[in-house]
Amino acid sequence: MMVPLITALRNLKPGGWIEQVELDVRVMSDDGTLPEDSLLAGWGPNFLGCGERSGRPLNTQTTMRAAIEKAGFTDVHEKLYKCPIGAWPKDPQLKDAGAINMEHWSSGLEGWAMWLLTKHGAPMPWSSDEVRVYVAKVRAELRNPKLHIYHYT
Question: Where are the domains of the chain?
């Protein structure tokens, strides 16, 4: 992450600014609807581990502020948003965002998982078939309308 930030710093004039958005891979719930033993609850820790083993950490969302400051940026502002997964929120705007995010998650799961799990899965790399079965089970959990889940953005 540091190289793009240093490049941005070198290419900005004084007073210039950058904006960066990162998605947290952890799936959370504030109301207890996400069982601790669910695949979705384990999704984030699973992929954070894969990222570490691959040498490409996936915790950028939690480390970007420090990296931006280390690159020389000042007056850094950070705003975290709870981005719902699914159309469960009552607020119409969050309901729409959650529905869109559900499509994003549902369509992206296999692409996100295949390389990381077949190369850096634990305790050993997974087979492609194992990843497809896992993704199908995660998709089934995602479709549960009783889950009030989100990730940070």
Answer: 22-57+79-152
